[in-house]
Amino acid sequence: xxxxxxxxxxxxxxxxxxxxxxxxxxxxxxxxxxxxxxxxxxxxxxxxxxxxxxxxxxxxxxxxxxxxxxxxxxxxxxxxxxxxxxxxxxxxxxxxxxxxxxxxxxxxxxxxxxxxxxxxxxxxxxxxxxxxxxxxxxxxxxxxxxxxxxxxxxxxxxxxxxxxxxxxxxxxxxxxxxxxxxxxxxxxxxxxxxxxxxxxxxxxx
Length: 205
What we know:
Radius of gyration: 31 Å
CATH class of the largest domain: Alpha Beta
Number of helices: 6
CATH superfamily of the largest domain: Potassium Channel Kv1.1, Chain A
Strand content: 25-35%
Order of helices and strands: EEHHEHEEHHEEHE
Shape: rod-shaped
CATH topology of the largest domain: Potassium Channel Kv1.1, Chain A
CATH architecture of the largest domain: 2-Layer Sandwich
């Protein structure tokens, strides 16, 4: 069957009749000769509902994947869930109504993982694998640190006792190892990852 074009609110859509009627009793009634069918002058079907919300409805009808509106900062978007529930009731989409009324979306946030890493100044920090569910923040701070000093004052041995060889040990003699206090910049990296169950199928009553 050829796809049909129709308008919802101010937005235009194209879909197969089968996609619309299999999950929506309202569309099934519409295409069965119901007097609810409204045509524009050019013959386009017009539905006087919210076009942005219908885009979500159509995505569900096509994939049967329930929507999850979750932000790692603000959590679930309950206003959008409520608005979508109104549209799901209008289009008579039983599975979607059941999912939203019972707030099953709360179970689609599997976990929140937090990693805290200490980074020394001057160390190359690899860019993290970024995605929509990962937030990375850096908190630099100055702190005092004891740094090893080579007895021969060799610059490349500073901070690295293992770099000193026979001549350095001879110069050291019986004296204790020498350390100096030094201000160093350390950075704390906090990675927060929200893990969602993206691939779960629709919840059926």
